[in-house]
Design brief:
This protein is mostly helical. It is 46% helix and 4% strand.
């Protein structure tokens, strides 16, 4: 059932991920690659074990200035990011499609049902597919969607303007599909709890809807309000979508990243912001308060880290241990989205209350909350009626850390916090990249379709430009 799809695999400089089958991280003990019928619980565990990598994405973390490079500085100086994405399609998306296929096939669905209700397995796979497609389209813009994962090699691209409503519709349909059948096996996140999966799906709807704030505010408002009206979304840290790594064979991505190399540190933009506001999260965000100046040349970066041996690694040691958890989507992040929606007039919720509670929850998630520190911090960042959207999105930026995908995407949409491009920029425009360029393998295997898609994105660095904006980036 493996697809010969669009030829592009997301490289390791974009984000981390696990690709192994699992025998001690979840509920499975069979290699899905050794049987002609995929073991759906194994496929699900495999996908979920790697999903923490999507919340530990490095290169977009350079673009939103979470991180700075210590020696090889091309990415933080905006060398055009021409990256392959078929790793998404041949990896997680393919596994999820196989779960759907097996549970839908009359010949196999009874066997698949040993791993949980067919409907519930399909619903979870659909939610996760929507999540992964959201990542791919927000990186590249127009992508293969409606014709993907069907075993074809000549695959047309869909417009992002069509993909967004399709993803939201998919999330709603998946939630409606849940039943009271046997709990799904292989679910290392929510243990087959369909209520929590419903909360995750509705929370994704809200996050996707907010992306539309500047391109289709009417649709964004309607979808956000509808998801909020379900009263069934992530509203407490206990429901956060969290990957709890066991260590051993399956480690926290940042632990793995620092095992043999020390190429990333916390950017001084982040440490400076936190120092100025006495932010107690600073102790968790990095190993020290010595941030690395962002976007230096290789020589300057090497000189800085040599002269500052206590430069800040990304995350404190206790937060990047082998068994440290990774939060993919949190209640705090949702509260900032809800606060912004309220300020936009999309809902009748109290923006100030949501904002204050979002800060408190995020500090609590990081294990640094104290009432005294929180009160002092809020005196510096409280909403003032004038700069509220800036303040909300700046706190969202901190709440997303170290998730480069979310930090970069929300910055592109909102414009906050205000980021200054490096003066050592290596690209033509000297501006922060706004999208990923289609990778070279796609041009060699799906040339007609990717060439047509690339023609949509022209900027200072040519057709298929990283300066061009995705559909919602206005």
């Amino acid at each position: 059932m493996k697809n010969k799809l669009v030829a592009i695999a997301l490289s390791s400089v974009v984000l981390f991920g696990c690709s192994k089958s699992i025998d001690d991280f979840g509920d499975m003990n069979v290699n899905p690659n050794s049987t002609p019928i995929p073991v759906t619980s194994a496929l699900l565990t495999n996908v979920l074990s790697g999903i923490g990598g999507t919340a530990s994405s490095i290169t977009p973390g350079y673009y939103c200035q979470y991180f700075a490079q210590t020696q090889y500085t091309d990415e933080s100086r905006y060398t055009p990011p021409q990256s392959d994405f078929d790793g998404f399609y041949s990896g997680a998306l393919n596994d999820l499609q196989n779960i759907i296929n097996v549970n839908s096939d009359a010949k196999y669905k009874d066997l698949a049902a040993l791993n949980g209700s067919n409907a519930n397995q399909i619903a979870i796979a659909r939610i996760l597919k929507a999540y992964y497609y959201w990542i791919v389209t927000d990186y590249w813009g127009d992508i293969p969607y409606s014709q993907a994962l069907k075993g074809n090699s000549d695959i047309a691209y869909d417009k992002q303007s069509a993909i967004y409503p399709a993803l939201i519709a998919e999330l709603k349909a998946a939630v409606a599909q849940f039943n009271v059948g046997i709990a799904v096996r292989g679910d290392i996140i929510y243990s087959g709890n369909t209520t929590k999966w419903t909360k995750f799906a509705n929370s994704l709807r809200m996050m996707m809807a907010l992306r539309l704030s500047k391109v289709d505010a009417a649709a964004g408002k309607a979808e956000f309000a509808a998801a909020l009206a379900t009263a069934n979304f992530i509203d407490a840290s206990a429901d956060n979508f969290t990957v709890n790594y066991p260590g051993g064979a399956f480690n926290n991505p940042w632990f793995s990243n620092y095992l043999t190399r020390k190429d990333q540190g916390v950017a001084s933009f982040v440490t400076g912001m936190q120092t100025a506001n006495a932010d107690p999260r600073a102790a968790a965000f990095g190993s020290s308060s010595v941030g690395i100046p962002y976007g230096l040349t290789r020589d300057l970066a090497s000189a800085f880290v040599g002269a500052n041996p206590t430069w800040a690694y990304v995350l404190s040691a206790s937060r990047r241990a082998a068994n440290s958890p990774v939060i993919v989507l949190s209640s705090a992040q949702l509260k900032f989205a809800r606060a912004e929606a309220a300020k936009l007039g999309w809902t009748s919720e109290n923006a100030a209350t949501l904002y204050a509670n979002g800060v408190k929850e995020n500090m609590t998630d990081w294990g640094v909350f104290s009432q005294t520190a929180y009160d002092a911090y809020m005196l510096k960042v409280a909403l003032n009626g004038t700069d509220d959207l800036k303040l909300i999105n700046t706190e969202a930026y901190l709440a997303f850390y170290p998730n480069g995908f979310q930090g970069w995407s929300n910055w592109r949409r909102s414009g906050f916090p205000v980021l200054t491009p490096t003066v050592y920029a290596a690209n033509v425009s000297k501006q922060i990249p706004r999208r990923y360029m289609y990778g070279t393998r796609e041009f060699s295997t799906n040339s007609k379709n990717v060439t047509a898609a690339a023609a949509t994105y022209s900027g200072a660095d040519g057709v298929n430009s990283s300066d061009a904006k995705v559909w919602w980036d206005k």
